Each structure stands twice: as C-alpha cells, then as structure tokens.
Amino acid sequence: MTIALHTEGLCKSWGGVFANNEVTLALPLGARHALIGPNGAGKTTFVNLLTGLYAPSAGRVWLGDADITGLAMHERVRRGLVRTFQINTLFAGLTVIESVVLAICERTGVARVWYRTVASCRDQIREAEDLLERLRLAEVANTRTRDLPYGKQRLLEIALALAMRPKILLLDEPASGIPAAESAEVFEVIAALPSDVTVLFIEHDMDLVFRFAQRIAVLVDGRLLTEGTPPEIAADQRVRDVYLGESSIKSGGASSGGGASSGGGASPGGGAGPPSDAGADP
Q1: pTM, whole model, 2 decimals?
Q2: What share of the chain is helix, strand, coil (3-state, %, to 5)?
C-alpha cells in the first residue's frame, strides 16, 4: 500500500492545553477519509498542522516519503497539499471562469508574466473550461462569484483547489451551510475526483460521512479515539458515547434525530486554540 500522507505523534498546545495530542494517522493513495469528532475536538487544528498554518509543538508530517514538517504553506501547496476552508475565501468580483483561470495561471507561472493578458492564455482557459465541466459549474462560468448560490460557491472553492493539481485535498466542512440537496451534489463531485487524488474531509453530517467515506477517524479531546471503516465506526460504542450522545448511528447513515449531523455532539471541553480561533472548531 502506498501512503500519500501520514503524521507521527502530532501535537499542538497553547499554554499547556493540547488541541492535538499524539495524533498518528496514515492516508493511503486515493483514500476518501473522513475526520469527525465533537466541536472542540481539534479537527481544524489538525488540518492547520498538515498545511503548515500552525507549527506543531511535537511530531512530524510526511508527504509520501518526504518530511514536510518544516515547510511553509506555499511550499506544501507546490508539492501538492491543497486545502479548502470552513468559510469561503473567494474572489467575489470575478466570474467563475476568471477565478479558475487565475488559479491555473498562478500554478503554471503565467501570472508572473505581467505583459500577458488573460485572453491570451488559451491553454489555461481550456483547462479551466474542462474543470468547470467536471465540477458541474459550466452553466455558471460567466456568473460573478458573489451572485452564486452558496452550494455553487463551495464547488467553486473545490475547483480552485483542483486547479492547483493537488495530490492531497483537505476539505474543511465542504457542506457547511448548504441545503441538503446541494450538499449531496458537492459530495458527489468529491467522490468522482480522480483516483490518484487523496481526500481528507472534516464533516459533521453523518449521512454524508457514511455515504462517501471509505474510512473514518474520530478525534476526541485532541486525541485519535479510533479509526476504521464506516461499519466499524458505526458499531463502536465509544463513538456513540463520546460523540453521538443519544443519537444512534447505523451502517449507511445517522438517525435523523441525532445532533451529530449538525455538529451537535457533546463537546468534551478539552480542546483549545489560539484567540483567533474563537468561535471555530479548533
């Protein structure tokens, strides 16, 4: 088995309080891996450590055989480690295709050639058109980002990430704030990504997790509680107790009355993040 990304004993603490504590996790090439846990469990902190936004207090991050623990964020992106965020970070005034062409031009180095116009970047435009077709955005290619429905904005964020041709794609709650019908569309696009793209996604909606994840890792109090296939996680009483609370989870979905699908599992209260993370899941 080829391992695309793995961590060894990854820790992040602030003032002696651990947001991540000895997290060791391996993602095989082409994995569709979900990361779940109560609010405050340390899920977003873990992704921030993977991307280099945070420096770990201890532990290592490996991309394939390369130790990338000391690399800056932009260097990790160049090596194929790309993420999306919980809150969209888009170009509101640009059209969909302008946004994607700009990202492709940045990847290919064309953006640094000041005298070239976008209209002259024919190869980049063709690549952007193909990408928008694949992500079901072709019909809104000339729509301003600010005018898109929120579900389409989330798809555009994934398109911008894919424009960087990632080896690893990290998705922080890609279905957050999206109506159910649109969130299913987002995850269908994720499921259809090329098999050589490895995906790790944070998600609170257990229906989506159990439909689309091949394996699931559960964080609690900053530690990896367990990891396994969806049926294994569904049958794990510890997951029911510490994350799902009174809701029940079955192979193939969560109960409609449980708080897990909306992120409402009981918080363990042990996770912590820097002041700038206030209000977000650290």
Answers
A1: 0.79
A2: 35, 25, 40
